[in-house]
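Journal club prep, shared notes

We agreed each person brings one worked example of a sequence with its structure written out as tokens. Mine is Alcohol dehydrogenase. I'm keeping it raw so we can talk through how to read the token line rather than staring at a rendered picture. Sequence first:
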Amino acid sequence: MTSMRVAQVSSPGGKFEIVERELPQPGPGHVRITVEACGICHTDAAFVHDAFPGVGFPLVTGHEVAGRIDALGEGVTGWQAGDRVAVGWFGGHCGHCRPCREGHFIDCANLQVPGWAYPGGFAEAMVAPVSALARIPDELSAAEAAPLGCAGVTTFNALRHSAARPGDLVAVLGLGGLGHLGVQYAAALGLDTVAIARGADKKDLAHKLGARHYIDSTATDVAEALQALGGAKVVLATAASSAAMTATVDGLAHRGELVVIGATPEPLAISPLQLIMGSRTVHGHPSGTSQDVQETMAFTALSGVRPMIETMPLEEAGAAFERMLSGDARFRMVLTTGK
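Then the structure, token by token:
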């Protein structure tokens, strides 16, 4: 095979179209991956609409990639053709900026995100640096593994690096692409899990995912409800709503944490007094390195956590993208190539 199909957007805000491109060859320290599945993240919409600096067009986005290595570049060791691999938001790091020199690779000033730094996974094949590769366990299909490279690792990493310990009350704000995984991971980690969402109709789903408590944010004061349960050690804010995040702060226990992973440009309306009284903290949490992705997939396989996905073929990338934008997806759209 000398060519491949990709779903590309030719100009900012444009529609997806399927085109043929020459099959890329991996350079030194890189591998070529036959893509089997690629999740669709809301951040892909930001790339499509040119909301990040330096996004190139025509654009092939996609940073939740699962597939198999089919070619090795010069100097690659430890990997071989046929290995099942995932590539997530972390698509490589520079190694020389200050965060990298401190070992904080996910905070790299020159982070290489697939679809932003180089062509991503909305394609039949892609090339990635070996530093971006995570091994997929046998228990996970490609379609299940793909969303774990961003949605999965972000929620799992945020929880395992938070102040919460088994038995602590932890609330997950939102039950979407991130939140439905956050609730499952929180329960699997032994946390007393609260799901917060809009509407009574989501209660059964929340309990099915592992939540012991459900708060309908349209029917009750969220902070008061959390305090009635003893106060949350951690609120994992997956919903991209600053107002919804703000409403949880007074529900934190003393020395509680609001951990923000839902991306929105709107400011949080939190007063210094809310933080000072009770020694509360608010901080953001990024995704995770390739090793974090690998550990997320391993925990997922062992614990029985699974992303809830809808699959569509690559040639229907435009329709799948629109379904994600509409909020109708339950809960992660995944493109498949039939490879």
